[in-house]
Amino acid sequence: MNADALLPAPLADVIADFEFVDRGLRAEMLIEYADRFREVAPAIASRPFPESRRAPRCESEAYAFAVDRADGTIDWHFAVENPQGLSAKAWAVILAETLNGQPLERVASVPQDALHRIFGRDLSMGKGQGLLGMLDVVQHDARVRLDARRKQALGLDGSPRGR
Length: 163
What we know:
Elements: H1 9-18, H2 23-35, E1 62-68, E2 74-80, H3 86-99, H4 104-108, H5 113-119, H6 125-153
Antiparallel strand pairs: 1-2
Helix pairs in contact: 1-3, 1-5, 2-3, 3-6
């Protein structure tokens, strides 16, 4: 099976939009995403944000917050403390728009190369590591919930099921 077949459809669509654009158009498209960034609502998280929600290696001090949906999926909300963190803001918008409400198995299996397919191969190592840190937090949230579901299905969570 093609690796792209495992991508959540909205993310695959964004990757396809970026696939064959030149560097200049790519930058314009990413700025448009960054312009759509909206800070996490105070009802979800407020400053000072917990370090446990901070994206590792991210110089823009990005934070990701998971809100569970009734259908078992997640909505992610982001804070980016660096006002100049356009790449982090663009990536936050892309992650939220393409992964919110998607099956957790698909979110957990998003390959790291999705970042480079969107941002291009000339993404600096430092910036790339920070943006991957944002993906790490999102995927960690998905895996934690998947593990909890597996334990519940097996009756290993202390619930009466399976006894």
